[in-house]
Amino acid sequence: MARTASNTRNRLNRGDNAWAYAFIAVALCGYALFTAYPVINAFIISFQEYKPLGSTFNGLDNYADTFKSELFGKAIWNTVVYTLLTVPVALILSFAVAIMIMPLKKWAQTTFKAIYYLPAVASGVALSVVWLWIFDPLQGGILNQLISVFGIENQNWLGSSKTSMFSLVFMSWLSSHGTSIIIYVAALLGIDESYYEAADIDGASFWQKMWHIVIPCLKPTTLFLLVTGVIGSFQVFQNAYLMTGGGPDHSTTMVGLLIFDTAFKYFEFGAAAAQSLVLALIIGIIAFIQFKFLGKDVEY
Amino acid sequence: MGLFNKHLGNRGLRYTRNAIIVVFLLLFALATLFPIYFMIMSSFGDPIEAGAVSYSIWPGKISLESYKFFFEFSEYSYRWLWNSLVVASVVMVSNVVFATMAGYAFSKIRFKGRGILFAVLLAAMMIPYQVTQVPLYILIVNIFEIQNTYSALILPSIVTVYNIFLAKQFMSSIPNEILESAKVEGASQGKILFTIIMPLSKTVMAVMAILTFMDTWNTFFWPFLVTNTMDMQTIQVGLKNFRFANTTYFAPMMAGATISAVPMFILFFSLQRYFLEGVTVGAVKG
Amino acid sequence: MKRKTKFASTVLALMLSVGALSACSGNGNNGNADPSNAPSSNPSASSEAPAAKDTITALLPPVSANYQANFEQMAADFNKLYPNLTLKIEPASWEDMTQKLDTQVNAGSPPDLAFINSESVAKYEPLGMLMDLKPHLTPEMVSDFDEVPLGYMARGDAQYGLPAYLAVHSIGGNKQFLEEAGVDWKKVQQEGWTYDEFREAIKSGVVKEGDTTKRYGFVFATSGVASKDYLGILVKGAGMPYPFTEDLKYAYTDQKYLTVLQAIRQIIDDGSMPKEASSIDAGKRWNMFLTGQTMITGKGLAGFENSAKLNNEKLKANDGSAVADSIPVDYVVLPMPSFAGEPAVSHAVVDGYVAFRGKKEPTAEHAANVAKAAYFLASGSVAATTNNEIALSHITESARKASEGMEVALDPDNQAASAVLLSQAPAMREIPSDLGSEAIKIENEVIIPKLQALLAGEITPEQMFEDVKKAAVDTFGADGVVQ
């Protein structure tokens, strides 16, 4: 019985390999040239002292330096803290917003989606100017005016190591959810109406439907957002670079910023490549765990 | 919407619920919109230096000087917009097409090496670009010698792993039975892709289109690296020319940022119906 | 169904447009093939005949507001001077050009010339990517330059570039406020001041209304990496004009360094400088200066006088274009204070045109052509126009001559003060590149982060001094630092 079924499958799937390779051909070529080639290069460089006019191999020195460096450890710690504070909040917030948009009228849905999406279209430089104003340390700063209502003294948001990390996290909370919201909304709309209808017949409550239909159905999307979110967060660079420069006292030095400094401030490309690969390994392990826990039910 | 209960005709309860939702959404919208509001508002100021920026909620004076300044600042202002449009459109289309194909293969076809290949693709996302940038630059400029061309701007992002991953995740929720039955009827994979998968994936394709377009449109560093004449620069690179020695022409920069955001609004609104309506499997089955 | 066809037609249209666009990009390639694909250092082209055609590429930032607008004129003038040579200029913004240059340098294909700071020479020299112009500069070219700035672009025997200007980082005061606080600014301009005098002056410049400070005595932009400027300027006047002593010991482990760190804290603790100084950036403090929230601001450049005047005119015109809440301001150039018993030394910054080489060894002809281009840009009318625009004094004879008749409308007192500051600029001191790069690393990884913490009041000067000392001893050894 099982044999015949697998035979039928085999017959049906004949030629699938060829089709599959044809479908991924362009992607693979582009990948091999423009992604794999530079990555392999970086891998080789990580065992070298890089010089444009001729590098010399120095074995595992770069890796040894990376693991010995106190600053690298601190940067990893900062990045982990930042990731834990931002990625889950981003997921929950964008999920909640996507759900809340659903019962609204169509025009209202479009409007809200457009609004949440907007910050993504504005250039980063323009936004960073605004955020610098929000975090202005004097009494006139927006956030300081806001807290002064509660009688709190003005804070040196970006300039004090007590608040600098929080400021960057806060900035991420209030911006850059547009992409996740749109992806969640798209996924929500993909859930077949018949599931809800069946649940309604069983008299399921909103929360029951949420738990038994929505969350399982959105698992692939959540996995996607989680994995890309963690990757993005571990490589985060621009905000720290523009807003705090990693300071004060390395309280906001992220690995991405450190790698940038190593590569471009000190011209130690070998060391930067080694740091990157260590970072990639860490991200890889985290991603693997995420796939293990969330990836199971993705196949229908 | 089936997710939300109709509260069995209890209108009062429904209105309260919607009101609470709308208030929350509005508050969140306000926080999100503020930077944009500031960007647009300050673009109507005078073309003055950054030190002169007066941070205020209301504009002191409305003028279109900055927009004039932007277009008169360089003879290439229009050219920059055009370059961005070309590059972003091509990258958008190629990503939608190729990522859809690859996403389908990775999610629904069981071919040899699928798991490994996908893991390898994904692994590349984990390497920060800071270290791959120099090898990539060597490849484009020293080996291919295509600097300062559209190819150099387009080729490296012809199809991104991010989009393949996105497509794969969305397509994994298409029920296998539909595909199986199509196969039993003798449809080839190519036919399945065009007649079943693509219509069912309109939503994710629209999402990919807008995200890719936006991303490419906003990219600054790569176009900055590989272009070396004004006429090949994109709008983001051109915008940076507003930042001068110790001063920044603030309002024109904001005007430029506003101008550069407009195409994305247009794209968003022209594509929004695809991700508003959703696609149900039932529609295709029946 | 209807929707389906619409979607299909959209896809079709998009696909057609790909075809159209890729055809278009093909045209783009062909159209640009000539100028962009000609390699900058083409040995075969330049070695055949003495007047062989050659192209020199230059990566240039917006040095002054009109600088980039003059690129075409500059290229044309250069071509008129040397008909066989083409000067190809790539514009770039200040913030981004370092990264572009760094990527190009590491890829082994930098431009022939780049406008950078003289300190960056130390960064590129160890890579072997700089080109020595010395053999290709004629004696007339060399003698055209003032000695001190030219020295900033030299390392050992090699002349890696030509300087465009020497700028002195000073501070600037509001004339009216200075007089109200009883500061004899004219005397300070001529004779300088000590830290104690400075401290008293900025203390008396503070204006309070109840508990809130309406006006500070002194605000220096110290957010992020800009804090480096602040400390850099202060240590110059504290007997440490260079990070290394003459016998190449790391200087910042000296007790004098601690004195400077203590001064930084004192100024804030006195209430003369905002306690939030660590996140005040260049734009913010200039705004504070124009709106009368501070008596003295830093860093200051001679050209700030023009910026202040411009705002004064806008105030007079009263058309709403002036800085909101600003007041008329007379900008006074002031020197930084010096510390007890130490001579006043200015913080000089030299920027200029530095020559690079690619992976291939450049031919002598090409190197000579690059030297010609560098000299063309760094002297004569190009330098005269630019330096006048940013109100910096000229450093070549030819530029001084070329600038005759060009209007410079600076206040005579300020000009005299600037001249004094210029004369206090220290000459270049040669530091071996390995020591130099270690010092830069300590600066970035220890000094700047700790300084920000010091400014924010999170660590004491003594703690910071210990940290710097520890990092220095770890790097250079106990014998490599000043005890």
TrEMBL record, chain A:
The chain crosses the membrane at residues 21-45, 80-102, 114-134, 165-189, 210-234, 269-291. GO terms for cellular component: plasma membrane. The keyword Transport applies. SUPFAM superfamilies: MetI-like. It comes from the Bacteria. InterPro entries: ABC_transporter_permease, MetI-like, MetI-like_sf. GO terms for biological process: transmembrane transport. PROSITE patterns: ABC_TM1. Keywords: Cell membrane, Membrane, Transmembrane, Transmembrane helix, Transport. It is found in: Cell membrane. Its main location: membrane. It is a multi-pass membrane protein. Residues 76-290 form the ABC transmembrane type-1 domain. It holds the Pfam family BPD_transp_1. The keyword Metal-binding does not apply. Belongs to the binding-protein-dependent transport system permease family. This is Sugar ABC transporter permease.
UniProtKB/TrEMBL annotation, chain B:
InterPro entries: MetI-like, MetI-like_sf. It is a multi-pass membrane protein. GO terms for biological process: transmembrane transport. The chain crosses the membrane at residues 20-40, 80-104, 116-144, 150-171, 192-214, 249-269. Residues 81-271 form the ABC transmembrane type-1 domain. It is found in: Cell membrane. It holds the Pfam family BPD_transp_1. PROSITE patterns: ABC_TM1. Keywords: Cell membrane, Membrane, Transmembrane, Transmembrane helix, Transport. Signal peptide: none annotated. The keyword Coiled coil does not apply. It comes from the Bacteria. One of its GO terms (cellular component) is plasma membrane. Belongs to the binding-protein-dependent transport system permease family. This is Carbohydrate ABC transporter permease.
TrEMBL record, chain C:
Residues 1-23 form the signal peptide. It comes from the Bacteria. Its main location: other. One of its GO terms (cellular component) is cell envelope. Keywords: Signal, Transport. This is Extracellular solute-binding protein. It is found in: Cell envelope. Belongs to the bacterial solute-binding protein 1 family. Residues 30-51 are annotated as: Disordered. Pfam families: SBP_bac_1.
